[in-house]
Design goal:
This protein is of the alpha+beta class. It has one domain: Gcn5-related N-acetyltransferase (GNAT) (Aminopeptidase), CATH 3.40.630.30. The chain is about 25% helix and about 35% strand. It has three helices and eight strands, in the order βαβββαβαβββ. Strands 1, 2, 3, 4, 5, 6, 7 and 8 form an eight-stranded mixed beta sheet that branches. Strand 2 and strand 3 form a beta hairpin. The radius of gyration is 14 Å and the shape is globular.
């Protein structure tokens, strides 16, 4: 497995989009086609590749005041539980730290809270609904 930053016009972008659609949107009866994705050009796209196949992805947005935001983490169902999500998360954190972020925030689906807690994130605030399902804000402060 190889983790790479994907350029906006790279051939892998379509695979990243399809993975997000299949894993994050279709199960909820939603589609990325119905969303405004224009802000994504400001984000860093990371993908885990096995050969030329994208098996996981995540978006990273660098914000002011030393903050970074993680979004749209998706791992192909047949590759879940194999450490790919953890490796992708660590790669995103390394980039955020390199870009001088002091902490990372994300909105975790309830089903992913334990994954992020195991990676050192803590909950912040109360559960809320996003895309029709429960989420909770989570944060991690980086030790620089």
């Amino acid at each position: 497995m190889n983790i790479q930053q994907i350029a906006p016009h790279a051939p892998e972008v379509q695979q990243v989009w399809q993975l997000r659609e299949d894993v994050l949107r279709k199960p909820l009866g939603l589609s990325l086609k119905d969303e405004d994705l224009s802000g994504e050009k400001e984000e860093i796209t990371l993908a885990a590749l096995e050969g030329t196949d994208v098996v996981a992805c995540v978006l990273l947005r660098l914000l002011p005041d030393g903050k970074a935001r993680l979004r749209q983490m998706a791992v192909r169902p047949d590759r879940q539980g194999k450490g790919i999500g953890k490796a992708l998360l660590e790669a995103a954190e390394a980039i955020a730290i390199e870009k001088e972020a002091l902490f990372m925030e994300l909105h975790a689906r309830e089903t992913a809270v334990a994954f992020y807690e195991n990676a050192g994130y803590h909950t912040s605030g109360k559960p809320f609904e996003e895309v029709g399902i429960p989420h909770i804000k989570m944060e991690k402060t980086f030790s620089l």
